[in-house]
Amino acid sequence: MEHVPGSFGTSASFALRFGQTIFSAASLIFIYLAMVMAIVTPWSILLALTDTYSVLVKLLPQELRVLSIVFAGDFVLSFLSLGGACAVASATELLASADGKICDGSLCIQYQVSAALAFLCWFLLLASALFNFWSLPSLYY
Question: CA 90, 91, 93, 94 torsion: positive or negative?
C-alpha cells in the first residue's frame, strides 16, 4: 500500500485530527454551532486516538471498508460544518447590519469567532477527506 501523507493512520492525519478537535471544541465553547460541532468533536477525537495507535504500532489500517467509512464521514461532516459556518457568518452579518441594536459588540464577536473556528475545522476536515480519498485506490493493488 502506498503511504499517502495525511491519510488515515499516519502522523499527518493525527495532526489534522488534532486541529479538527481543537477548532470544533473551541467552536462549541461559543455554542452557536453546537449541533454540527457536537458530532465533529467526538468523530475527530475517535479518529485521532486511532491515528495515535496506528502511529505508535506502525501499522496502517489497510481495509477498504474502514477507509471508505472514514472518507465518507469526513466528507459529510466537512460539508455540514461548512454549512453551519456559512449560516452563522451570514446571520452575524445580517444582525450587525441591522442598525446595531440587535447585535451588541460582544455577541457579534462571539458569533464571528465561532464562524471562523468552524471554517478552520471545515478546512481540516476537507483536507482529511481528500487525503483519504487519494489513498483509496492504493488499497486495490
Answer: positive
pLDDT in tens, 85-136: 898 888 888 887 877 677 776 778 888 888 888 899 999 999 999 988 988 8
* Vertex 82: Cα angle to 87 and 134 (nearest 5): 170
**Poorest-confidence range of 1-10, 19-28, 114-123?**
1-10
Mean pLDDT over 64-84 rounds to 90
Kindly state the cell numbers that stand for 81.
460544518
CB-count burial class (<10 Å; 0-12, 13-18, 19+) for 31? exposed
Domains contained in the chain, number = 1
Domain extent at residue 95:
11-139
> Please, are residues 136 and 71 in contact by the beta-carbon 8 Å criterion?
yes
- Pair 7, 131: CB distance under 8 Å: yes
